[in-house]
Amino acid sequence: MEQPPPHYQRRASDREPMVRRSDDQQGERRVERRTERRGEHRSDERRTDKRRTEHANSADVKSTSRTASLLAIRYGIPIEYRVACYFSFPLVLGLGLITVFATKQDFSTNDLYLVFLGLSISLSTAIFFMSRHITEPLKTITNAAANMNKGDLSVIPKRRDDELGQLIENLNRMGRGLSRKTELERVLAKLLDPNVANKVIDELDDVNFKGENIQATALFADIVGFTQMSEKLSPGEVSELLNEYFGYYTACAKHYHGTVDKFLGDCVMLVFGAAKKDQQHAYHAVACALLMQKITEELNAERLKKGLFAVQLRIGINSGEMLAGLLGSKDRLEYTVVGDSVNLASRLCNEAQAQQVIIQEECHDALAKQHDMTVDNHKTIKIRGKENPVSIYNVRSLGDEEQQKQRQFIDKLLENN
Fold first, then answer.
1. CA-to-CA distance for 242 and 297, rounded, in angstroms?
2. Nearest to residue 130, comparing CAs of 166, 87, 160, 94?
3. Disulfide-capable partner of 391 in 46, 228, 328, 361 (CB 3.0 to 4.6 Å)?
4. 165 with 72: CB under 8 angstroms?
5. Helices (H), 268-359
6. What's the CA gap between 301 and 414, in Å, rounded?
């Protein structure tokens, strides 16, 4: 017999060393194939779900876009024409019904009554829903305006794009402007005296850089020996001391209708009759100075009990013509008063001794005619920068009645603090 070709022998020899797979291996292979098929099937399901979701979202977007387009077309028509259409629809419907019934052979009076009854019901229904459609946003706007008057500047929800919607948007914009102005007033009240802050806000649209000439009174109060005192105190203690005393001095100025013009280190400048008109600005300034001296004594007594430094105050006051307004540069302004009368008040403060309230003779003569005023240390001094000597007085009291009022105010002020 002939021998088979060599390649048949090689194939046979190739198959001979192959090891037959076990049943376990074949089972594992079948499990892997089934798992792969299930994974492919799940992937197909996920792709199908994704396409369905995308299709649904696309339909929703188209529906929303279509609705928005219809509303835009609707609200694009002026409101007077829309109202006319709302009322014309039931009339046209009624005329149509009349025409239909008129073409009938058996048209009767009862049919006519039915037509007019249906027309009346349709027209009444249209008027009812139309009135609600108009009056509901108007009620919302009315309530919002009333709340604005009470200080509630909350935003009105905007649910329409017609003329009423524009009115609501304008009211919301106005509310935001009022809210910003309120916040500005609060910030200015912390930085400036409330009377000055209100005057600045009232004149925001007409800022007068030249100021105005007024008759007012300036008061300068200075702490005696502050430089030596600050050398023995830390910066924190100095700040705490000044804040405590200046806080009470501000309350005194507010009690007598004055305004705090500025704090200059250990000195405070008060003005009476500038930001707010005051016919008795001179008297109120002197009364405020005496109150400041008395409350300083009260605070000193408490500080000495605690082993702290006591403060001695000297005050100078002068009345006369001065320039008041927003002064400075266009980039930075300050509401203040300037003039020779203001400078003289500062000079009188420098001439005063501890616990003194110094005024010049003209102020004394004007107040002595109307009030029971006690003074001492009348003298004439030479003021630096003034050609003529100045006659001055030290004010001790404005009468028993004023002293009793000040005593009550001090007790109430210390009790609240």
1. 15
2. 87
3. 361
4. no
5. 281-305, 340-351
6. 13
